[in-house]
Structure to design on (445 residues):
């Protein structure tokens, strides 16, 4: 009786009204939401900095001052470990072995840590060390550099050690690379920062391999990388650079617009 | 030939069946979503006092057995509370087993320089260890799979404050 009164078509329409939002079929229409992606392998990385090359001397240390920024963090992602981070990094030529220092926000708990990460062997897993939270607005120096005492790379936060890694970069594939990176584990969302409060690498320095002296990063080149192949277009920058995302509706805009909307700007000061 | 009323009856039956199927589908999807959000089931943490000294050279951390009966080794928070602190920070969602052990915790690197004046030496701490959990790092390259991880979180047993966390994806030497 009830069915006759309602009518089958009305019932189906009612069901569709329930199903469409439940299954998220209308999510593409949403704007200003982080694109959480569906695969941790799609991690997006925005990089400034420069790798060793014929143009530059070889480096074995990286340093930058960064003010801790807030940013929209994707909380609902199939991959349970969900984070954004700002780091300085030294790696082997293939970027398969590395030491990094910086700060990280875990999206699923919204907690902020100082953080070091290193990978000694290409075939091995990586190790991380997490320190107590670093508050938004704090200005800190992050360093990865050589230490004679351990004949290895150490990760530092301001004046103190985060980790002593035991990794000797003279034993890996050289020349080494140095990078300053903002990244997220999902397809596209904010690294720490926003258009109005950008995450800012200041006083970017690199430790020269030949005499282990710290020198300012040369200006003149800037770039970013935002592809599935994270390291496809790492480029050079000044000693002062910024990284942020607009957090716009990427799937609506298309890839060409994405490139315009996600700049990393290296500001020439010298 | 089916009569009109018989046709309507069959249509009604079909609508009810389709409705049931669709509702079932919705419930299954919602159930999976909830399961995904909650992660895999976590075992109950085993809480106790460290039985023998332990160290992890790669992290330069050491744990000593607290002296029995000394007033200075009475924690202000329970092992369960320390576990809750760890989970509030890290939100670990799966593990084969979880240990929460009271020990005197030392980190010979963190906060110091050249191993001098490190921040934590012989601090009474609950050390929460997640065994065979999900690696907390994204893979180095797309498509790679990460090995199971061990996550170690030290919580000050007197103040309840987070001290240090470590993770290793793959094997690590524990002495």
């Amino acid at each position: 009786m009830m069915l006759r009164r309602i009518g089958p078509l009305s019932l189906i329409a009612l069901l569709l009204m329930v199903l469409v939002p439940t299954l998220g079929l209308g999510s593409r229409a949403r704007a200003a939401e982080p694109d959480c992606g569906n695969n941790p392998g799609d991690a997006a990385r925005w990089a400034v900095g420069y790798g060793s090359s014929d143009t530059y001397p070889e480096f074995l240390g990286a340093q930058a001052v960064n003010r801790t920024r807030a940013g929209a963090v994707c909380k609902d992602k199939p991959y349970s470990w969900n984070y954004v981070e700002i780091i300085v990094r030294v790696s082997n030529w293939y970027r398969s072995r590395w030491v990094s220092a910086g700060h990280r926000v875990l999206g699923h708990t919204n907690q902020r840590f100082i953080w070091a990460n290193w990978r000694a062997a290409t075939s091995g897993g990586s190790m991380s060390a997490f320190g107590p939270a670093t508050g938004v607005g704090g200005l800190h120096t992050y360093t990865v550099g050589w230490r004679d005492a351990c004949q290895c790379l150490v990760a530092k936060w301001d004046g103190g050690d985060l980790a002593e890694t035991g990794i000797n970069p003279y034993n890996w594939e050289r020349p080494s690379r140095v990078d300053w990176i903002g990244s997220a584990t999902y397809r596209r969302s904010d690294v720490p920062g926003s258009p109005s409060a950008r995450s800012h690498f200041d006083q970017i320095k690199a430790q020269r391999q030949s005499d282990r002296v710290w020198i300012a990063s040369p200006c003149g080149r800037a770039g970013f990388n935002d592809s599935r192949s994270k390291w496809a277009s790492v480029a050079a920058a000044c000693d002062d650079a910024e990284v942020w995302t607009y957090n716009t509706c990427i799937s609506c805009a298309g890839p060409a617009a994405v490139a315009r909307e996600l700049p990393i700007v290296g500001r020439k000061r010298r | 030939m089916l009569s009109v009323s018989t046709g309507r009856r069959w249509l009604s039956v079909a609508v009810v069946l389709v409705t049931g199927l669709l509702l079932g589908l919705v419930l299954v999807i919602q159930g999976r979503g909830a399961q995904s959000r909650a992660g895999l089931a976590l075992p109950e943490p085993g809480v106790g006092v460290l039985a023998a000294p332990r160290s992890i050279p790669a992290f330069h951390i050491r744990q000593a057995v607290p002296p029995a009966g000394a007033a200075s080794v009475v924690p202000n928070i329970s092992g369960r509370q320390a576990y809750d602190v760890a989970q509030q920070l890290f939100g670990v969602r799966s593990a084969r087993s979880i240990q929460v052990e009271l020990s005197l915790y030392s980190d010979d690197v963190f906060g110091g320089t050249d191993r001098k004046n490190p921040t934590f030496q012989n601090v009474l701490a609950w050390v929460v260890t997640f065994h065979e959990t999900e690696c907390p790092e994204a893979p180095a390259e797309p498509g790679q799979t990460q090995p199971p991880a061990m996550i170690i979180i030290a919580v000050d047993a007197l103040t309840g404050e987070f001290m240090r966390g470590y993770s290793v994806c793959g094997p690590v030497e524990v002495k």
